[in-house]
Amino acid sequence: MTDLVVVGSGFYGLTVAERLANETGAKVLVIDRRSHIGGNAYSAAEPRTGIEVHQYGAHLFHTSNERVWEYVNRFTAFTNYVHRVYTTHKGEVYPMPINLGTINQFFRSALGPQAARDLIKEQAAELGGKEPENLDEKGVSLIGRPLYEAFIRHYTAKQWQTDPRELSASIISRLPVRYTYDNRYFNDTHEGLPVDGYTAWLERMADHPNIEVRLDTDFFDATQPINKGAVVGQVPVVYTGPVDRYFDYAEGELSWRTLDFEQEVLDVADFQGTSVMNYPDEDVPFTRIHEFRHFHPERDYPSDATVIMREYSRFARREDEPYYPVNTAADRAGLLKYRELTEGEPHVHFGGRLGTYQYLDMHMAIGSALSAVDNKLLPMLGARGN
Ligand code: FDA
């Protein structure tokens, strides 16, 4: 007898399952259409080298949310990894996000914070107070043309497969510039990587006698015993798949960007000396290269091989993995219509990044699941007498 069906074994679904199994004793069935647990945070050891590879793109854990930090530490310890990103522009490597080091290297200068601030302000005034009409103008108005064109323009064009002059200014509200030499990527209070990997962490969340995880099970496959038609209205459902798919795209498809990854094992100890290198130039087709050994310098990885992954960005088709919401005006209008439809489904709770059509970092997906448990799901299951 199942008290709750959770569709999707990502961080959102597993947080809900773990909390409700522990708090109410409910029997929770988690299904996932993939053949592994964990959603996009899943990672696995590359067979030849044993190096942990984040299969759906690099995942760095960071949070300033104390409740989330306390919660995740129940399942894993974290290393003291601190994320830093570099970028290769015209054959030269610069630190990211743009900081005093980037500025002084780029302009061959030795400016202090105030002088750098003044320079960027002067360069950003190029539009003379005119309202930016597209992303290109917005970028120039935020950080000035030289830095924008070097580090942002072509990178953004590659991400969106679109000339930034044709992209909406609203896509970016700010471009971070630091007037110090601090090149830590994240500003959060807590940061680190799970000591024994993401999958061990995710499996521990599901390790409860009241939780069953059934893989290779698509909620829309009517030949499976657990499917939408058989379950909705019979048992409460937490659905973390794409919201438009749930309603059979009745209000049209919401658009996403996806990524293609090109993984390679190289016979060298170290390929690039750091975990992530961006490539913002037009003549390089990929956006960045990840080298996974650098996420875990504390591990005993082989000294004669390394794993790299080139990342390419493009618009997603229906059969692709949806990664980042595009969020056009049409998408926002469609999402409102889907939200109305979800109100007609009182037995289904829509959550997570796909179920709500929004980009969520891991700590946000976990935080939002914890809130949904408190505010909606515990009262709902409580009302069932569990
Ligand atoms: P998630 O997508 O993980 O899980 C949803 C699950 O539902 C999937 O397993 C899917 O198979 C399943 N599903 C969908 N439809 C189904 C169906 N019909 N039937 C059954 N199952 C179905 N965050 C961060 O904090 N730091 C980082 O560095 C990164 N990096 C990053 C890189 C890239 C490329 C992406 C795309 C995302 C990140 N993230 C991140 C975000 C992180 O991946 C995100 O927070 C979590 O995946 C959210 O967890 P969810 O459970 O919401 O979705």
Automatic annotation (TrEMBL):
Molecular function (Gene Ontology), one example: flavin adenine dinucleotide binding
Keyword Isomerase attributed: yes
Cofactor: FAD
Pathway(s) of this molecule: Cell wall biogenesis; cell wall polysaccharide biosynthesis
Keywords: Cell wall biogenesis/degradation, FAD, Flavoprotein, Isomerase
InterPro entries associated with the record: UDP-GALP_mutase, UDP-GalPyranose_mutase_C
GO biological process entries: cell wall organization
Example of a GO cellular component annotation carried by this entry: cytosol
Keyword field contains Cell membrane: no
Record EC number: 5.4.99.9
Reaction catalyzed: UDP-alpha-D-galactose = UDP-alpha-D-galactofuranose
All copies of domain UDP-galactopyranose mutase C-terminal, residue ranges: 150-359
Any single Pfam family the record assigns to this protein: NAD_binding_8
Family, similarity comment: Belongs to the UDP-galactopyranose/dTDP-fucopyranose mutase family.
Subunit field text: Homotetramer.
Task performed by this protein: Catalyzes the interconversion through a 2-keto intermediate of uridine diphosphogalactopyranose (UDP-GalP) into uridine diphosphogalactofuranose (UDP-GalF) which is a key building block for cell wall construction in Mycobacterium tuberculosis.
Protein name: UDP-galactopyranose mutase
Native species: Serinibacter salmoneus
UniProt lineage: Bacteria, Bacillati, Actinomycetota, Actinomycetes, Micrococcales
